[in-house]
């Protein structure tokens, strides 16, 4: 679930945060239509990804976006991060330049608690193939 103000602000567009399929161009003209059509045709500049952060459990949520680095170069931001007791891992949403969103390599994030390794993963973090609800129907 996206949090307005953290994961989604007026600086992001629906295509960057995975809401592109919810955009309808069939309902006539609206403010921003031409800009969104251009993004839909060219592809978004940034992409939201799930991520795991290395290290001990985060002691507090990030109040501000944290820089994501690849080879010391800023390639995005972590918009939300928290420790998941169920997964026993630190999980995060990251908004990454699309050219780096599926790249392998050495990614790090500058947290308030120091530099941590970052590994991209699929979302949702738990049961992405939805096996749990399917099993309960049998």
Describe the structure.
The chain has helices at 33-42, 131-136; strands at residues 46-53, 66-70, 73-84, 89-97, 107-111, 114-121. The protein is mostly beta strands and 138 residues long. Strands 1-4-3-2-5-6 form a 6-stranded antiparallel β-barrel.
Notable traits:
single chain; 138 residues; mainly beta; six-stranded antiparallel β-barrel; globular
Give a topology summary.
Blueprint: H1 33-42, E1 46-53, E2 66-70, E3 73-84, E4 89-97, E5 107-111, E6 114-121, H2 131-136
Antiparallel strand pairs: 1-4, 1-6, 2-3, 2-5, 3-4, 5-6
Describe the structure concisely for a colleague.
The chain has 138 residues and is mainly beta.
Topology pattern, helix = H, strand = E: HEEEEEEH
What is the gyration radius calculated from CA atoms?
17 Å
Mean pLDDT: 90
Strand adjacency order, main sheet: 1-4-3-2-5-6
């Amino acid at each position: 679930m996206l949090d307005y103000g953290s994961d989604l602000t007026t600086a992001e567009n629906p295509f960057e945060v995975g809401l592109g399929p919810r955009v309808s161009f069939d309902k006539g003209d609206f403010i921003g239509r031409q800009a969104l059509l251009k993004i839909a045709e060219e592809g978004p500049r940034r992409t939201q990804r799930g991520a795991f952060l290395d290290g001990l459990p985060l002691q507090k949520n990030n109040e501000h976006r944290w820089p994501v680095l690849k080879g010391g170069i800023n390639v995005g931001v972590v918009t939300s991060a928290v420790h998941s007791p169920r997964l026993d891992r630190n999980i995060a949403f990251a908004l990454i330049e699309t050219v780096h969103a599926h790249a392998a390599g050495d990614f790090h994030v500058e947290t308030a608690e120091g530099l941590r390794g970052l590994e991209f993963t699929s979302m949702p973090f738990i049961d992405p193939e939805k096996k749990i609800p399917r099993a309960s129907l049998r």
